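Exercise 3.2. Students should predict the tertiary structure of the chain below and write it as structure tokens, then compare their answer with the key that follows.

Predict this chain's 3D structure.
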Amino acid sequence: MPIAGVINIPAQRDTFKGDIYNGSHLNGDQIRVYEGKLGSKKPYADSPWEANNLVTTDEFKSMKGKPRTVGSAVHKLANFASGGYGFSIGANCYIWDFAAALPIIRGAGGDMLIWDEEQWKRYEDIDPSKFDHKHSFPIIAASRENLSLLTKNITFSADKKQEFVSEPSNIPILQSDEKPTDYDPEVLKRFQALTPSICEISRKNILGASVGTVSFKEDQSEQTPADVRIEEELKALLLGEFPDFGFVGEETETQSTKSRYNFVVDPIDGTSNYSNGLPIFSTTISLTCDGKPIGGIIYFPKLDMVVFDDDKNTFVNRFNRHGDWRPEEVSIRDDIFDCEDDKIPFGFDSNARSKARYGQEISKILNQPRTFGGATSIIAYTACGKLGGFVLSDAKLFDYAGGVSLVGKAGGQVFVLDEESGEWKEFTDMADILLQNPNEKRFVVGGGPKTVKKILENIHPTPHKKTTG
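Answer key:
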């Protein structure tokens, strides 16, 4: 039985340590698992959708919260131990996936059960000979009280299979025939020159302050003091440099969008992650001209990484401890349906896998789903070639505007479902409508041209109820 563990996650710059005698710590500070009531506002760590073979009761639906699928069992379990997730489910976990995490979880007041021989068992009750390269297990980690509740409502079935739609989609796909927007290149240069200042505003308000009180807006999305502070400071910075431009912010009042140029800003995309201590969230800004995105900046404060573009290309810069600026050019990958590899990760928002049906032709995108809790994160990783593409089902303009030009200049496309006409349209053909209704939820698909075409021909989205505001 493991009695002590250490987990270092370099991208987060976090080290988790713990043992069953002295408790558990994150970067030296003591941690506890989440011991509150499970429900819709608390993220939980899920497994890749097709692989988990989850069998649940109706009661489970009311307690499951917001799924996050990050593709690493160790990452999920470590961040659960520090209270970031309400609970964590793993589908095919080997001993090395959870051995170091188990004592950290127990030291933080939680526990973990393993599915073996059609029942949930403690680690100590598993035949030790099964901890090898041949045996993998479903696991659940939670507080002791929540663990008892969850295991009464969750089992696994090896026979459960993903259902696919046999017929192709009949939604028309309209390719844009518009010419590129004629904008002043000096405007884009001046905007991109503000990137270090934009990163610093986000960094100081995120890393230099506590989360504070979390409130809920009319649409029940979360808001923290940092959301408001960052947006106010970005607004002052951007309109100080470009006083005649419009400003569309998620948290504050929109300033006229009648200008040729407008900024679309989400100060923290992934507020739920931020407020729960999870590392994947970002500050995102799009600069549009005549409604069309011409520049984007997406900055991840916790990861200290920024994705941005110039007039032709997309770049990523990972700051080192000296804050050095060493951008690397990135590009879309467009091979998910051409290569034999079935392990290419693909991005979804929290509801995209349940609000659409999928054809067998695109089953590969379901093999390794990733749900980070922020649409912008998914889009940025797609632009950098780390994801094969993305499907979003509940995306507001703030969620994806900052990434459209990044994806485009990295060689990809972004399509939006126009539910009024019943057609898939390139973002450029929907821009004016979207800018006037930034809070309306949309289906959005992006990636390389071949990937996007294949998905649009084989996806069956469930229409939204009309909501504007």
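Discussion points: The chain has three domains: 4-156, 173-178+332-461, 185-330. The mean pLDDT is 90.
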